[in-house]
């Protein structure tokens, strides 16, 4: 790896901070969603979670002990701007992040700051949220505020984390905040499956306007880098000699990674395969136009090229074939013609007691090398930062297992083997890889799974009011790799 390679861990505000209603913080859509009965697997929420708001100095010590050069975390929009109005900031929220950033820098750890990791202020949601055009201006105003407050010290920015997961989970399946299951809403969209596409457009525009605002207003003075983080599985045909399988694998990548990567890193627009298929599906349902909003030439020009690096979150791999009547029920989206599934031989994330970690997570290190090569070739050899990669264990309410799992051999192997493939992509294939952030520094609130899934290098005792953190073996493994 490069001498200046970024070695870090990653987290997100709602998942670790707690203090959900303290010191003037406003509510976010995740506060609302997690307080909704039945929304979270174990009935928990992020009200306290790791209590980083009060224990941030411990987090910094943990990072120092890891020998991390960087730390990726997100800002809570509603902690900084409780009414989403930048002329009425929350001084306590600003002070918290100032102390935190200063503490990191004092320990020689550079911050990588995500502006938005899924916790939209509830007051913005109440006015239409990502389904309303107004959000673009609001996001820009929030970003402007953050650059003005923290940009003198923060030199690495991520606008939005994993927009496609958010569109699919929050506005299609409805299993993440704001929990919209493609409902009919006469105000913002006119088709039951339109919400996730509407939202993808406002996210793209918010990202692009923010990037351009940073360039025109702050770049010369602050000299930082800014981009977006996209999540992608690697996907390959079940039978590489079957053209239908090849097409299905490519479509899956186009409609997940390409959905946002093509507009930003390629030509300003969605992949052709996606546009053609969604138009066909829309027409088959009697719609006149595609439910995928058309991006105007002006919007395409605005979006195209708005990146300084490619932020990649990667966890797992899938095989693909064309969907059939029998497999239609397993489609991840009504507009998805690819049936994707894991190879039965792949190892699952998990442990001896509960062998299935996150249900979706299969350990396929070679997928990372292939994906890095694909991104490099498809998007013109951008500098890539792996902004998340990690492995989980599961702990159900009825079968708590050993939540501590300090001897997390599987996570050690996961880190070593994925990094080994990343190194091959860099060294042997020439991929311009700049950094690696492990998900995650410590066990935390894993969205709809609550505390049943643990990804941490550090175990956190959520029964203990002190939220004691204990390093797992994987923390030492990761440190050894960084040191050497
Ligand atoms: C033709 C149109 C098709 C639309 C398709 C929309 C379907 C979207 C659904 C995608 C589902 C992907 C599931 C992936 C899950 C993970 O990769 C995801 N959880 C990664 O998120 C990050 O991972 C951490 C661990 O889960 C998490 O804690 C962190 O906050 C996330 O950033």
UniProtKB/TrEMBL annotation:
<dbReference type="Pfam" id="PF00232">
    <property type="entry name" value="Glyco_hydro_1"/>
</dbReference>
<dbReference type="InterPro" id="IPR017853">
    <property type="entry name" value="GH"/>
</dbReference>
<dbReference type="GO" id="GO:0016052">
    <property type="term" value="P:carbohydrate catabolic process"/>
</dbReference>
<dbReference type="InterPro" id="IPR001360">
    <property type="entry name" value="Glyco_hydro_1"/>
</dbReference>
<keyword id="KW-0378">Hydrolase</keyword>
<dbReference type="GO" id="GO:0004348">
    <property type="term" value="F:glucosylceramidase activity"/>
</dbReference>
<dbReference type="InterPro" id="IPR033132">
    <property type="entry name" value="GH_1_N_CS"/>
</dbReference>
<protein>
    <recommendedName>
        <fullName>Cytosolic beta-glucosidase</fullName>
        <ecNumber>3.2.1.21</ecNumber>
        <ecNumber>3.2.1.45</ecNumber>
        <ecNumber>3.2.1.46</ecNumber>
    </recommendedName>
</protein>
<dbReference type="GO" id="GO:0008422">
    <property type="term" value="F:beta-glucosidase activity"/>
</dbReference>
<comment type="similarity">
    <text>Belongs to the glycosyl hydrolase 1 family. Klotho subfamily.</text>
</comment>
<dbReference type="GO" id="GO:0004336">
    <property type="term" value="F:galactosylceramidase activity"/>
</dbReference>
<keyword id="KW-0326">Glycosidase</keyword>
């Amino acid at each position: 790896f490069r001498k200046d390679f970024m070695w870090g861990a990653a987290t997100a505000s709602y998942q670790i901070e707690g203090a959900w209603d303290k010191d003037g913080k406003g509510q976010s859509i995740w506060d609302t969603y997690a307080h909704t009965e039945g929304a979270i697997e174990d009935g928990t929420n992020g009200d306290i979670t790791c209590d980083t708001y009060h224990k941030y100095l411990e987090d910094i010590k943990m990072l120092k002990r890891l020998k991390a050069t960087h730390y990726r975390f997100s800002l809570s929009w509603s902690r900084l701007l409780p009414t989403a109005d930048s002329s009425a900031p929350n001084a306590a929220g600003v002070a918290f992040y100032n102390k935190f950033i200063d503490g990191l820098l004092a320990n020689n750890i550079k911050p990588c700051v995500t502006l938005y990791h899924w916790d939209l202020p509830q007051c913005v949601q109440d006015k239409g949220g990502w389904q309303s055009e107004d959000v673009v201006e609001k996001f820009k105003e929030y970003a402007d505020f953050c650059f003005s407050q923290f940009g003198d010290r923060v030199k690495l920015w991520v606008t939005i984390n994993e927009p496609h997961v958010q569109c699919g989970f929050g506005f299609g399946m409805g299993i993440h905040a704001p929990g919209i299951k493609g409902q009919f809403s006469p105000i913002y969209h006119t088709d039951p499956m339109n919400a996730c596409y509407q939202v993808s457009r406002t996210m793209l525009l918010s990202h692009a306007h923010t990037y351009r605002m940073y360039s025109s207003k702050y770049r010369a003075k602050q000299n930082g880098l800014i981009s977006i983080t996209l999540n992608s599985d690697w996907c390959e045909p079940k039978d590489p000699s079957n053209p239908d399988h090849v097409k299905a694998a490519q479509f899956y990548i186009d409609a997940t990674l390409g959905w946002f990567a093509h507009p930003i890193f390629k030509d300003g627009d969605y992949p052709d395969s996606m546009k053609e298929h969604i138009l066909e599906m829309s027409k088959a349902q009697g719609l006149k136009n595609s439910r995928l909003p058309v991006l105007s030439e002006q919007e395409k020009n605005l979006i195209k090229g708005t990146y300084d690096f490619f932020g990649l979150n990667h966890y797992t791999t899938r095989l693909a074939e064309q969907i059939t009547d029998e497999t239609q029920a397993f489609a991840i989206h009504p507009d998805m013609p690819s049936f994707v599934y894991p190879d039965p031989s792949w190892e699952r994330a998990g442990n001896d007691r509960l062998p299935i970690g996150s249900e979706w997570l299969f350990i396929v290190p070679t997928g990372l090398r292939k994906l890095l090569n694909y991104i490099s070739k498809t998007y013109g050899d951008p500098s890539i930062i792996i902004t998340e990669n990690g492995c989980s264990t599961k702990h159900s309410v009825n079968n708590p297992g050993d939540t501590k799992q300090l001897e997390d051999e599987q996570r050690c192997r996961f880190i070593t083997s994925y990094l080994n493939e990343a190194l091959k992509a860099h060294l042997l294939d020439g991929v311009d890889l700049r950094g690696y952030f492990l998900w995650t520094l410590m066990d935390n609130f894993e969205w709809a799974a609550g505390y049943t899934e643990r990804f941490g290098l550090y175990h956190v005792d959520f029964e203990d009011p002190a939220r004691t953190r204990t390093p797992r073996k994987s923390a030492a493994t990761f440190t050894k790799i960084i040191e050497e």
